[in-house]
Amino acid sequence: MTKYKLAQLAEIKYGKDHKKLGKGSVPVYGTGGIMRYVNDFIYEGESVLIPRKGSLNNLFYVHGKF
């Protein structure tokens, strides 16, 4: 069986600080799901969100701006 590092199979990105963003319609995801909605986004498209903290059973598939 061939072994791969995750970075060889997927592009890995990190979130940004959302506290200075204004209210809007773009979801901000945290470990438990949508935390709030803001007026700007850092990514648009299909993605699997893996939590930085907490449980790995809280994966999210999203499509669109977030």
TrEMBL record:
Keywords: DNA-binding, Restriction system. One of its GO terms (biological process) is DNA restriction-modification system. SUPFAM superfamilies: DNA methylase specificity domain. Gene3D superfamilies: DNA methylase specificity domains. It comes from the Bacteria. GO terms for molecular function: DNA binding. This is Type I restriction-modification system specificity determinant protein. It comes from Lactobacillus delbrueckii.
